[in-house]
């Protein structure tokens, strides 16, 4: 009898151990399961684009365009439908133009537009190498990781997927990755394409950067913004003159001091708040899906906007 109990006890221990081992194996498998193949492909494409230096001073948009074009060619796009376009005077400022042919050549095309040049990045000013894609804490870090190589990578990946699936749209789907958005005063790739290769940008509808989407804490879609305009800056030149004197005999009434005081006065005097119809409609709609900001959004959208509420909104979300 005791021997039977002992056997049953040993068997129970074995079963428990087997269950523990099985659970550990399942957990280990869950922890080691990597991304799906399509996710890994996108990560590889995104990393290659981000790590291609496309600054004006040292980088090459042409190289980035060639690398993205190579992916489209590998996906099966005809060489005639994938073009790297650059002017001989600026060989490193190239653009990529490609097209997925539709079944109806007369239908207005859809254009996927993004820029691949980036702002200068001095490695000494960065905690991480600005031209190495680093994933940390759920975020990507690198120059251009967001602006605008994330969108450019999404467009290229989309074109690759559509081709791989054998999808034939009704209208042409075009992609244009351009150079010179960040330094348009020096070079403007979109402007150059419009003048020399207008077919690359000719479309009935275009998707570009400038707006964003919003998700809740669970990842549910709340809103997709549409950009209706963009604030621009204004340059001013301030010049102060006074009798002055020799630098070895400084006087209390110094032009530099006057200029500095004037700049401080400007800083202390914020510009008046202006809310147009588009902003008012946007804030009214977004208040319905932004509980923490809703009260201030409604105050700013009111007939007489509240400057204090606008300041709080700006501090909470500088993107507003």
Explain how this protein is built.
The protein is of the alpha/beta class. The longest helix is centred in the N-terminal third of the chain and has 31 residues, at about 1-30. Helix 2 (about 35-50) packs across helix 4 (about 150-165) and helix 8 (about 295-300) crosses helix 9 (about 305-315). It is built from nine helices and nine strands. A hairpin with a 5-residue loop joins strand 8 (about 215) and strand 9. The strands form three sheets. Strands 1-2-6-3-7 form a five-stranded mixed sheet, with helices on both faces. A two-stranded antiparallel ribbon has the order 4-5. Residues about 5-25 have low confidence and may be disordered. It has helices at about 1-30, 35-50, 60-75, 150-165, 190-195, 255-270, 275-285, 295-300, 305-315; strands at about 80-85, 95-100, 110-115, 135, 140, 175-180, 205, 215, 220-225. Helix content is about 40%, strand content about 10%. The chain has two domains: about 35-210, Zn peptidases (Aminopeptidase, 3-Layer(aba) Sandwich), CATH 3.40.630.10; about 230-320, no CATH class. The radius of gyration is 29 Å and the shape is globular.
């Amino acid at each position: 009898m005791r021997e039977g109990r002992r056997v049953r006890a040993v068997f129970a221990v074995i079963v428990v151990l087997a269950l523990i081992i099985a659970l550990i194996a399942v957990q280990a498998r869950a922890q080691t399961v990597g991304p799906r193949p399509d996710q890994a492909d996108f990560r590889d494409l995104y990393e290659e684009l981000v790590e291609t230096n496309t600054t004006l001073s040292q980088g090459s948009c042409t190289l980035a365009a060639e690398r993205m074009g190579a992916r489209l060619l590998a996906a099966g796009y005809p060489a005639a439908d994938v073009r790297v376009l650059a002017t001989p005077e600026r060989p490193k400022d190239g653009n990529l133009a490609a097209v997925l042919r539709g079944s109806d050549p007369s239908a207005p095309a859809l254009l996927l537009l993004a820029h691949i040049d980036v702002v200068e990045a001095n490695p000494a000013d960065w905690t991480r190498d600005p031209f190495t894609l680093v994933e940390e804490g759920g975020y990507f870090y690198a120059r251009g990781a967001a602006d605008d190589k994330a969108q450019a990578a999404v467009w290229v990946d989309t074109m690759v997927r559509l081709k791989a699936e054998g999808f034939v749209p009704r209208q042409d789907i075009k992609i244009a990755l351009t150079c010179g958005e960040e330094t348009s005063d020096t070079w403007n790739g979109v402007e150059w394409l419009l003048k020399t290769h207008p077919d690359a940008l000719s479309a009935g509808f275009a998707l570009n950067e400038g707006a964003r989407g919003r998700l809740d804490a669970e990842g549910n879609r709340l809103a997709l913004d549409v950009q209706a305009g963009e604030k621009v800056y204004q340059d001013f030149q301030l010049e102060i003159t006074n009798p002055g004197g020799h630098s070895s005999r400084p006087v209390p009434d110094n032009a530099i001091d006057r200029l500095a005081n004037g700049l401080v006065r400007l800083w202390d005097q914020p510009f008046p708040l202006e809310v147009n119809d588009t902003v008012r409609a946007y804030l009214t709609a977004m208040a319905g899906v932004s509980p923490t900001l809703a009260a201030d959004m409604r105050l700013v959208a009111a007939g007489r906007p509240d400057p204090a509420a606008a300041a709080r909104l700006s501090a909470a979300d500088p993107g507003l």
